[in-house]
Write a structure and sequence with these properties.
The chain folds into three domains: 227 residues, Vaccinia Virus protein VP39 (Rossmann fold, 3-Layer(aba) Sandwich), CATH 3.40.50; 199 residues, 3-Layer(bba) Sandwich (FAD/NAD(P)-binding domain), CATH 3.50.50.60; 141 residues, D-Amino Acid Oxidase, Chain A, domain 2, CATH 3.30.9. Helix content is 29%, strand content 26%. It contains 18 helices and 32 strands. The protein is globular and about 80 Å long.
Length: 645
Amino acid sequence: MKHADIKWQQGQPFSSEFEDVYFSREGGLAETVYVFLQHNHLQQRWKDREQFVIAETGFGTGLNFLTTAQHWLKQAGQQARLHFISIEKAPLRKADLNKALSNWPELEILTAELLENYPPAVNGLHHIPLFDHRVVLTLAFGDVEHVLAKLHARVDAWYLDGFAPDKNPDMWQPTVFKQVARLSRPGTTFSTFTAAGDVRRGLKEAGFTVEKVKGYGNKREMLRGALDTIPVSQTSLPWYALPKHETKSRHAVIIGAGIAGISTAHSLARQGWTIDILEREDSIAQGGSGNPLAVVMPRFSLGDNPDCEFYNTAFFKAVRELNALKQRYPELNWQQGGVLQLAHSARIQNQLERLDCTSELAQAVSAEQASEIAGVEMTTPALYFPQAGWVDPAQLCRLLLDDAGRNIRLHLSTGISSLEYSHGHWQLFDTHHTPLMDAETLILANAGAACQFTETGFLPLQHARGQISIVPATQSSKPLRCVICHDGYILPESDGRHVIGASFLDGETSTAPDPAEDAQNVHQQRLHLPGLFSDIMPVLDQRAALRATTPDRLPILGPVMDEDFFNEYYSNLNKGKPAANYPVASYLEGLYINAGHGARGLTSAFLSAEVISSMVNNEPLAVTETIWQALSPSRFTVRDLKHAR
């Protein structure tokens, strides 16, 4: 996507595309307070609220967001949480954002944290907790009408703040106002600087009461109002309707102490939940999370599709979380040294030729440029991911547990063989059918074993064996500065050794080391990087583990469906009947799953954790409806029913 084209006029940003200023010359901060905070009555409405949701059309310089956050932090309770969703089609570059916000030194501290976490111009929802997690900014980059149609939220107040209707008419269409109403609840308010007749009529037709009041400064009038009708359903596809999570306690049990389970526990702990993690092994991070070092990089693809949007936004979410954790724990072995993906296949060559994205995500580089980046000689062009890197997964898991403190209790050597739901609680039993624990909220994050239970047996989780090898560094390989990927990969030297790998064998369930896979890992390095190693390349150590994969290579995230309900009420989805003829989906109360991350678990884990957290807290969904449907545990059943399988 494109950045905003900015001109500067006496220190103020001016949009070349819309020929309009970003904030009032008469005092943008005071205008924000008057138009949006005052006329949405926010100071009064924030009292005694544990959660409040504001949505904005047009993030611009972020002035409205920062001003609102400043007031929220002063007025709301310490445990209260503000969700601020803001949509922007042409985001400012970070340098322009910094220059614009420098006009407001009273926001300097808040501005610095925003800039530190400001995402690249990549389509999708960027979920950004800020200010000790008291404010969550969801920056939605994309066209306003398309983004609104895919949001899942219940908004309490709207800031309608695009460029003026005569300058940017697309943002003020009746279809936009209908989506604003859909995402609202009875009593949701709005305010806007404009008093244009088309805006007034469009909002009334969408179900809002609208009144004119005095505008700010020299503006004669502005509009404010509230929704006085019942909004339409959140989703047009009832089989993907999300349940409202009902719980009397903020306590959850999570099965699985790998990166999926621990990141989910960490996310919930930040919101005051207490979590019991049950792990069948005698230590954490034993499965796919147990390699000595692992790569954090996008699962890159071309085009506009759910896979691309999910993995791109998940990647930048992971980078923000890792950077923040390293600030708190400098010992974290997170090295943001970049990743080079060699153009060893027709698919990668096609991506190089058609690459069209922000340079912060990926760059096409020549062999000479790749050599300069890597510090060793490259003979082929490559894709370069400058913000990617590598991390110690087990150490990461330990630090996330430390960071959560007493909110997480860890139970090792605790295997669960069956579940039973009774009187609003899930009871967990061991192999002797001895009850071990119960919970209103149960989250399965135990990789491929998540489908071992009767309640989840329909899930098509599969195993893929992977083996990494440890080889000694050479004089030629020691200068390597970044990860290099080809049919395998190699990480820079650590303690005189390189991690290389990795095999990927679908359906294999053994974790015994295999010399043949070591030989294959070595062969890939010699084939693609012949200058780094001599003919003798001894393997010093190896590790094999199982990855949990899915048929479409996307994780399985969300509430577990009631299989009997789906088979009964959606059995004729192949008939093409209107969606409105079907009841909304039914789920097993309080049961969620976070599994199937495959070879990109460290990339997808942090955003996936926020998806689960947003669901059990009944917060705005951390991804769009489109992404949620692509991740839903129900998706395979729905596809089968639609094709009468």
